[in-house]
Structures are given as structure tokens and as C-alpha cells.
């Protein structure tokens, strides 16, 4: 990065590094902004003389400006956000997943509307989806397919304009979990931005967040609950992001 005899200090670079500083944040750091907020809080009382990052110039001047830039880009929006969670279940394992997702969103001050597709009115669910910022659709697997009345709802969703919304599939299964993949396929047939493990890795480098969210039988063990929470935290971060 530094040419022969070039200075390592931003104030001797010969140009304003602010644009590169912001670009690096957007490309690499933004997915990890939850931790940026924690660290900015941790250093708030320190008298900092220099920022010496592992990449790029060392910063000796305008330190507060650069820390403030990280703080403002890492902050959360104050706009109200809403997640709709719809599920179909035989023995409530998928319902348990739905409730873990719900609790996580509520902890992040995100409004949640939760629907059991077999107990609620379809029009009411579709209206709820129409005004959502993100939609989670879950099903357990019965004879290699979705359970309950989910298919009809998903077909209706494909006829709606759901542009700009985030979506994710989830479900409990016994051995292969075909229904979760079928839900994912239906969601991909809408114009929502459907979360996938592949996209998460490519856009953030994170490997602990998986979509669709697949849980064998009961989500009681720590590891399984963590997997569900990781997905909810990831979508919460996307919804609350200001950039
Ligand atoms: C009649 C029946 C059929 C099932 N078929 C499948 C299947 O084809 N593939 C699979 O992975 N699991 C299958 N399972 C397992 C369920 O998906 C699993 O028990 C799941 O945890 C149920 O979640 P739920 O309580 O949300 O319905 C089946 C279970 C039952 C009772």
C-alpha cells in the first residue's frame, strides 16, 4: 500500500483519506457494526493520540472526526421496523423456532407479528406481510413437503409486489427437511431479497449465519438455539442499518 519512502501517516499522504476510510468501512467493517458500537463505547473515555489500523494510514490528526464517522455509520435507525413470522407446524417444533426468532427481534426493539398459518385468516396474514420489512416463513417437513396451508399462502405471496422486503425460510425437520428448501424456492419466486448462506458469506465473510434456518427436531440445545438467534440478529442488523 505504501510506495518507496511514502509516509505511513495520513497527514503526510498528500491527499484526503476520508473517502478511502469510509470505503473500507462499507466494504469490510459494516457487517460487524454491532461490535464497532461496543468498541466505540469502550474507548469513549480514552485520550487517543493516534489511530494505527492494520490496513491503511496511521491517523494523528482529526481523530475525533474519524471515530465519529465509524460511530455514525454503525448507529441504528430509529425508524420502526416490523418482522412477520408465519409458520406451519405439526407438533410445535417449528413454532418453538418461530418464538425464538420473535424474542430475538423484540429484544432488538423490532415489532413482530407471528402467525400460525393453519389458525389465522389468510387475508389477515397477507395484509400483515404487505406492511412488513422482513418476512420469515417456516414449515416442518411431512412426507418430503410443507405442512398445513402454507403452499396457498406462498402462492398468493408470489402474486404480490413485495419489493424491498427481506425474507428467510426456516423449519424443523427429522432427517432431510425438504419443506424448508421448498419454502426457500417459493420465496425465491417472490421479489423479496431472500437470505441465503451463500450470499451471507459472499457479502460479509461471516460463516456462523445460515439461511435457510434448519433445525433437526427440537430447538432446545444451546447450539440449535444459537443458530436461530444468529439468523435473527443478522436480519435485525440489516433492518436497523443506517447505510
Ligand atoms: C408423518 C410424518 C412425516 C414426516 N416426514 C418427514 C420427511 O419427509 N422428511 C423429514 O426430514 N422429516 C419428516 N418428518 C419429521 C418432522 O419434520 C419432524 O418431526 C419435525 O420436528 C416436526 O416439526 P413440527 O413439530 O414443527 O411439525 C415427518 C414426521 C411425521 C410425523
Automatic annotation (TrEMBL):
All copies of domain Flavodoxin-like, residue ranges: 83-239
Transmembrane residue ranges: none
Alphabetized Pfam families for the sequence: Flavodoxin_1 (PF00258)
Protein name per Swiss-Prot or TrEMBL: Flavorubredoxin
Amino acid at each position: 500500500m505504501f510506495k518507496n519512502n511514502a509516509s505511513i501517516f495520513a497527514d503526510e499522504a498528500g491527499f484526503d483519506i476520508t473517502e478511502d476510510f469510509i470505503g473500507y468501512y462499507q466494504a469490510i467493517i459494516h457487517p460487524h457494526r454491532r461490535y464497532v458500537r461496543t468498541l466505540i463505547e469502550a474507548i469513549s473515555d480514552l485520550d487517543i493520540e493516534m489511530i494505527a489500523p492494520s490496513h491503511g494510514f496511521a491517523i494523528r490528526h482529526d481523530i475525533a472526526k474519524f471515530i465519529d464517522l465509524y460511530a455514525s455509520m454503525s448507529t441504528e435507525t430509529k425508524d420502526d421496523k416490523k418482522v412477520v413470522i408465519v409458520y406451519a407446524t405439526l407438533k410445535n417444533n417449528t413454532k418453538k423456532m418461530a418464538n425464538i426468532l420473535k424474542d430475538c427481534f423484540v429484544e432488538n426493539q423490532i415489532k413482530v407479528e407471528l402467525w400460525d398459518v393453519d389458525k389465522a385468516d389468510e387475508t389477515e396474514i397477507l395484509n400483515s406481510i404487505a406492511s412488513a420489512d422482513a418476512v420469515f416463513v417456516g414449515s416442518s417437513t411431512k412426507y418430503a413437503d410443507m405442512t398445513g396451508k402454507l403452499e396457498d399462502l406462498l402462492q398468493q405471496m408470489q402474486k404480490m409486489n413485495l419489493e424491498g422486503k427481506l425474507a428467510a425460510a426456516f423449519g424443523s425437520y427429522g432427517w432431510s427437511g425438504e419443506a424448508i428448501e421448498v419454502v426457500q424456492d417459493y420465496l425465491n419466486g417472490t421479489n423479496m431479497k431472500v437470505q441465503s448462506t451463500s450470499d451471507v458469506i459472499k457479502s460479509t465473510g461471516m460463516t456462523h449465519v445460515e439461511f435457510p434456518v434448519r433445525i433437526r427436531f427440537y430447538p432446545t440445545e444451546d447450539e440449535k438455539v444459537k443458530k436461530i438467534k444468529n439468523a435473527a440478529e443478522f436480519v435485525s442488523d440489516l433492518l436497523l442499518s443506517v447505510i
